[in-house]
Amino acid sequence: MRDRKILVTGGAGYIGSHTCMVLKHRGFEPVVYDNLSNGHAAFVKWGLLEEGDIRDRSRIEEVLRKHQPEAVIHFAGLIEVSESVRDPLSFYEVNVAGSLSLLSACIAAGVDKFVFSSTCATYGIPRQLLIDEGHVQDPVNPYGRTKLLIERAILDLEVHGLRSVILRYFNAGGADPGGKIGEKHDPETHAIPLAIDTVLGRRELFRIFGNDYNTRDGTCVRDYIHVLDLADAHVRAVDYLLADNPSDQFNLGTGRGTTVGELVAAVEKATGRPLPKQEDQRRPGDVPQLVANNAKAQSVLGWQPVYELEDIIRTAWDWHRKQNT
Q1: What are the percentages of helix, strand and coil residues in the chain, rounded to 5?
Q2: Active site residue 224
Q3: Sequence-distant contacts of 87-90: CB under 8 A, at least 24 apart
Q4: What's the whole-number mean pLDDT along residues 161-170?
Q5: I need a labelling partner for 12 at 20 to 30 A (CA). Which of 18, 104, 187, 230 fits?
Q6: What is the mean pLDDT of residues 119-126?
Q7: What is the pLDDT of residue 244?
């Protein structure tokens, strides 16, 4: 029987590596394509590593010819919102030009099933409490704009036979409960690992950006989703495409919002330690509230998030305590 290979760009990164783990457990053979600029070779535990950049079309074509994957899951890209405001050109070069290079290579190689790691940042400032897939897409930062451009390119490329699932997820957190992989960015910009590193004394203070938003306690509201729930959704998206279903888009979140203030309290409760903190000004590009309506993913993909906020923090805490740096 032919190996059920799936090419995973950015598969040495945080969400990509967890997705490779779930792919392997469900009978697929992940092939990681990563330039290791943000990923880690040590995270490639469930398949082969092919080093390369998504902007290098000839290298991508070589890897596609070699492995002939049934589908591609595309994670590779730049993700940090405030960095996108400071350096938008890099985001357009990697997220847009790089993704177009990958898409062109897929079409040339006849790979017609494509799962795209997108973001709730494509929606911009929410116009309703829970964001569904029909919400207007009006991003307020370059990161969100680059993701939206590729979403639209993917849909336009259906004329070439490309079928796709676009997954717009909210705030990823947590780690493999078995401790094999976790979240490791340099520099780190995500709230939960920043909070945990502060509790552990590796950072002096946890900064709260903005305390004057129109929310329960004045701090931003975010929908935190466990990385393994995200990984599960990506594998379900592959199954969905392999079953010859049409292209579609789905939000991935829990449907429950947590303020930064509430997150601080949850971290202190889970760790049993105080979190030194400092209130600061709002960051450019941040929006007050982002919470998912996940009904469509539940209905169509049969997906259901199973981890709670305390699970996210506990698994992240277990992972980060074991790290030397």
Answers
A1: 40, 20, 40
A2: no
A3: 88/142
A4: 97
A5: 104
A6: 93
A7: 97
